[in-house]
Amino acid sequence: MMPQHFETPADAVAYAVIDNARRSADLTINVHATSSASARPCAHGYWHGHCPLCRGTT
Fold first, then answer.
1. Can you tell me the distance from the alpha carbon of 18 to that of 50, in angstroms, rounded to the nearest whole number?
2. What is the Cα–Cα distance from 39 to 34, expressed in whole angstroms?
3. Side-chain-facing half-sphere of 42: CA atoms under 13 Å
4. Quick one: pLDDT at residue 6?
5. What is the structure's pLDDT at 58?
6. Is there a contact between 25 and 47 (Cβ–Cβ < 8 Å)?
7. 15-36 burial code (b ≥16 CB/10 A, e <16)
């Protein structure tokens, strides 16, 4: 769900990069959920190593 307005084109690009990373993480979660029963999502809802917001800290 992309917002309708961005302050600058760079904001739109940054959002698209983050949104794409989120979608990739969602696909990874679907593929690995059954094999990684001990894995837990971070505070942002991403799985270990997939969060663009806290990468390297989870």
1. 11
2. 10
3. 17
4. 73
5. 40
6. yes
7. eeeeeebbeebeeebeeeeeee
| pLDDT tens sequence across 25-58 | 776 666 555 554 456 677 787 776 777 887 654 4
CA distances from 2 to 9, 26, 27 (A): 13, 17, 19
Q: How far apart, in whole angstroms, are the C-alpha atoms of residue 4 and residue 52?
A: 22
* Cα 15–chain centre separation: 11
- Give the pLDDT band (50/70/90) at residue 4: low
pTM of the model: 0.37
Tokens 């894995």 -> residue: 39
